[in-house]
Design goal:
This is Membrane transporter protein. By secondary structure, the chain is mainly α. The chain has five helices and no strands. α1 runs antiparallel to α2 and α1 packs across α3.
């Protein structure tokens, strides 16, 4: 069942990606990874692999604007590194509640944009 959930999540992650971290967090918690930091590391590995596979058709087709892509890569890498350092300093319960509340906020905003 977990593999089916990961397969569906990989398709969603390659296509859309919004709230992907929240969905992957739920899957990793279901898999039995109790620590938030361990689950978060697995989430980032999965999301990175989804991203690599999703950009391959664009790369092969020559549709990537290299200067913009490089800027995004630098920003994403530095943000992930600095965010990891900050996340390790926070209490696990506070971090979990922040992730849940941020996911609810994003879901609300996306729903209101779509349906209102």
């Amino acid at each position: 069942m977990i593999y089916i959930a990961l397969f569906i999540c990989s398709i969603y992650g390659c296509y859309f990606g919004a709230d992907l971290g929240i969905i992957l967090l739920a899957i990793t918690q279901t898999m039995g990874f109790s620590g938030f930091h361990i689950a978060n590391s697995i989430i980032h590995l999965l999301a990175t692999s989804f991203t690599i596979f999703s950009i391959m058709p664009f790369r092969i087709g020559g549709l990537i604007a290299r200067p913009k892509a490089l800027t995004m890569m630098v920003g994403s890498t530095s943000g992930g590194y600095l965010g990891r350092r900050q996340a390790k300093q926070l209490n696990q319960n506070i971090l979990s509640s922040y992730v849940i509340n941020f996911g609810l906020l994003l879901s609300t905003v996306y729903s209101m944009r779509t349906y209102c």
